[in-house]
Design brief:
By secondary structure, this protein is an all-beta fold. It contains one helix and 24 strands. Strands 10, 12, 13, 15, 16 and 17 form a six-stranded mixed sheet that branches.
Length: 269
């Protein structure tokens, strides 16, 4: 807590000292309506303070001593500091669902501020791995040689008082380079009874397979699964016919009971 010393002349007929706190000992507040001014007087040896309409005293404690042989009293006040306000941070790039080709170079940027102008730094993470730290704006980091996988990117802002805040995560996909040639999937639990055929569908990167129209599709028939239940097919001609770009693919089991779709897989042509 901050401390300050106030020296005032004692009234010869009273044991009280009048202290008028400076702006550093007051905190401005908004008052919804005018309140009558009233004096607040502490107990004996305390201080008399007259608050105005639009200021409110910080919680304070006055310790006073009379200097011998004089009417002067030395008062030391201790004021409670206001609680720390945390920073605010958000990721601005890359966009959620963005796809990159491994080994990828990904630029990550953020906006950050601190209500008390005490921002210390912004750190960037891919999952639990720190990929950069920046002390001054613009807050930007470059992640190089990112391997294939799906990552949740976040930014964490720190202030000089030990507070921190984490942005909402942004998910990105890093896919292996090269043109795929095979399709491998596990047979449906209804393979022997309800499945009529399997359907391979390719969508633009970032699309929702449940609602989007596929860019390309291929009827895979109903191949005989291996002993472990897996089905692997060479479809290099199908993939080679796609334009260069980033895609996602799914395999669906289609039958009299409807259509069941696999999880999506990202790839680059």
């Amino acid at each position: 807590m901050a401390s300050r010393t106030i020296t005032k002349k004692m009234d010869s007929t009273t044991d009280k000292v009048v202290c008028r706190p400076t702006l550093s000992a007051l905190r401005a507040t908004r008052s919804p309506s005018r309140q009558p001014t009233r004096a607040m007087t502490s107990a004996k040896n305390g201080a008399l303070m007259r608050p105005s309409q639009n200021v409110q005293p910080v919680i304070a404690e006055f310790n006073c001593e009379r200097k011998s042989g004089s009417g002067i009293r030395s008062c030391k006040s201790q004021s409670a500091a206001p609680p720390n306000q945390l920073p605010v941070v958000s990721l601005t790039a890359p966009a959620g669902g963005a796809t990159f080709t491994a080994p990828a170079t990904i630029s990550v940027t953020a906006q950050a501020s601190d209500p008390e102008n005490r921002l210390a730094r912004v750190e960037f993470y891919a999952g639990a791995t720190r990929i950069g730290s920046v002390a001054v704006a613009p807050f930007k980091a470059t992640w190089t040689s990112a391997p294939a996988g799906t990552y949740a990117l976040t930014a964490v802002a720190f202030d000089l008082d030990g507070g921190s805040a984490t942005s909402a995560p942004v998910t990105v996909n890093v896919v292996a380079s090269g043109v795929p040639s095979t399709v491998s999937f596990q047979k449906s639990a209804d393979h022997a009874t309800l499945v009529t055929y399997y359907l391979l569908e390719v969508f633009a990167a970032g699309a929702n397979p449940s609602t989007a129209t596929p860019i390309a599709a291929l009827n895979l028939g109903k191949p005989t699964p291996a002993a472990d239940g897996s089905i692997t097919l060479n479809e290099s001609a199908f993939f080679s016919a796609l334009a260069k770009g980033s895609y996602i693919a799914t395999v669906s089991a289609v039958g009299s009971g409807g259509k069941g779709r696999s999880l999506q897989v990202s790839f680059t042509r």
